[in-house]
Specification:
With 227 residues, the chain is α+β, with helices and mostly antiparallel strands. It has one domain. It is built from six helices and ten strands; from the N terminus they run αββββααββαβββαβα. Strand 7 and strand 8 form a beta hairpin.
Length: 227
């Protein structure tokens, strides 16, 4: 009887601990994401145009394929995509969990093992790069103009997010791409409950001295600062 009571207490304590953590986590996510960083930034009228792009869950940073500061097509090559279309003008970068990217094309394909590894930080990460011919501003696509100095800082942040070998980024050889204009590369770091794809984007915006959340894990935590 004593053993049964002890077991029950352990189970109850574990459940209450999980519930308590979940409540604190959700409150922190909702609260801290509302705290602005660089809220009073004044963007130049002329400069380099970049975009914050969301699909409703995941966010990317979009930059020009080529300008006087950086020619991204020398790093993220058109030939690495299925379409090999060299007419693109923009390149989107999205950091995220490798398992999610490669093994979960839809939410119906999500496995518990993939979700657990991602949440716990036990899996590796990948950089998803997508070429676009044009960008259209809207509720989920925000344009901003930044200075050369800010763009150089952003370029450095993105470059440092890739894993490299002999000074070259490492393409992930897979057919698990989303279309003819995207490609995956090995990335640094691990996705977890406190550092997600949107946290990476938020950090990129901070690096470029743009409006961002103090901390966020979801896309609305960034987009709310651009309403």
């Amino acid at each position: 009887m004593k053993t049964l009571k002890k077991t029950f207490k352990i189970i109850l304590f574990t459940l209450l601990s999980i519930l308590g953590f979940t409540i604190i986590y959700v409150l922190a996510v909702l609260g801290i994401s509302k705290i602005s960083v660089n809220e009073d930034v004044v963007n130049p009228k002329e400069g380099i145009e970049i975009y914050l792009l969301s699909n409703g869950v995941h966010t990317d940073i979009v930059v020009p394929v080529k300008n006087d500061i950086k020619n991204w097509s020398e790093t993220v090559q058109f030939q690495h995509t299925k379409g090999q279309d060299t007419t693109a003008n923009y390149l989107a970068f999205g950091w995220g969990d490798k398992g999610f990217y490669l093994n979960t094309p839809t939410w119906a394909d999500l496995k518990f093992s993939t979700a657990f590894k991602a949440a716990s930080g036990l899996s590796t990460s990948a950089m998803h790069c997508t070429f676009y011919k044009r960008m259209k501003e809207g509720e989920l696509c925000k344009k901003m103009t930044i200075s050369d100095i800010e763009y150089r800082q952003l370029v450095s942040f993105i470059e440092n997010s890739f894993q490299t070998s002999n000074d070259s980024i490492q393409k992930i050889e897979t057919d698990a791409v989303y279309g003819k204009t995207d490609v995956f590369y090995e990335a640094k770091g691990s996705y977890n409950l406190f550092y997600t794809c949107n946290t990476w984007t938020n950090s990129a915006l901070k690096t470029a001295n743009q409006k961002a959340a103090l901390w966020t894990v979801y896309d609305k935590g960034i987009l709310c600062h651009y309403e």
